Amino acid sequence: MMSFLLALAEVVVQHSDSLSRMDAECGDGDFGVGMQLGFNNVRRALLELKNHDVGSLLKTAGQQILSSVGGASGPLFGTLFIEAGKAVAGKHEIDVMDLARMFDNALEKIRLRGGASVGDKTLVDALAPAAMSLRRSAENSVDISQALEMAAEAAKIGAHSTKNMIAKHGKARYLGEQALGCQDPGAEVVRLIFETLSNHHRTHTLHDEDS
């Protein structure tokens, strides 16, 4: 999990410019800057950790995002990682059932915190289908590699679907139909999370000792 989170931080930082461009189409254009700051802090904090389990790694990542990213993005993405971590507190290795619990837990708390539902043009539009995919994989005993591939595809489809939505949250809601054709940048970060998770698992296992 350590190496996944470090890889994710690198991916998000690499995409910071495109995330800001995406945000500029339906917001104020600083989303990528915030994500870059937050995930750079995640990387520094993780490298300073000594003893850790999967839950504490995710909690640390979430706390860094929560404390350094402004606007609604910090609380929402901070909540995602913190609540995912709570679902696997004390664990040193996770399976598909754990992943399903992690993202179900994160989704529930994000919905409570932000009030968004599927169709509102937010990160929920990518997170909800990915979480559902993992839940179905767990129920059907799908192996973890295939489960992650399917979840990544679900997140991708969900993120792309936001282009056809009218925003009901954030600054984009003031644009009404003018925001049609713009993809939500928060949903794009969720897509990156699941894509990186799937790609990373091909060469690593999701436990706390990988580096």
First-last Cα distance: 8 Å
Number of DSSP helices? 9
What are the segments in which pLDDT stays under 50 over at least 5 consecutive residues? none
Outline the biggest β-sheet: none
- The CATH topology comes to Serine Threonine Protein Phosphatase 5, Tetratricopeptide repeat
Overview of the structural elements:
Helices cover 67% and strands 0% of the residues. By secondary structure, the protein is mainly α. α3 packs across α4, α7 runs antiparallel to α8 and α7 runs parallel beside α9.
What's the SSE blueprint?
Layout: H1 2-14, H2 16-26, H3 31-48, H4 54-68, H5 73-87, H6 96-114, H7 124-139, H8 144-161, H9 185-201
Summarize the structure.
Helices cover 67% and strands 0% of the residues. The chain is mostly helical and 211 residues long. The longest helix has 19 residues.
